Amino acid sequence: MQVVVATPDKPIWEGSAEKVSLPLKGGRVVVFDHHAPMVGVLSQGDLILESSGKQEVIPVQRGVVRVRDNRLDVLIR
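^ that's the sequence the OP posted. Answer follows.
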């Protein structure tokens, strides 16, 4: 899936990921390719992106996510 992680000022990560683990208010959610559409509110924790056997961790304080059409958009502060 295509993933964009951005602050209000600029994108901080863009690319393709096979799996993304998100720290949502109700608990951790893992999003895979072709995930059902959803929106969510991020809580403090680590956003973990996995692609080609590599992991990238982005610390998050708060934000929102949207999954739609095999794309994940994450806006963080």
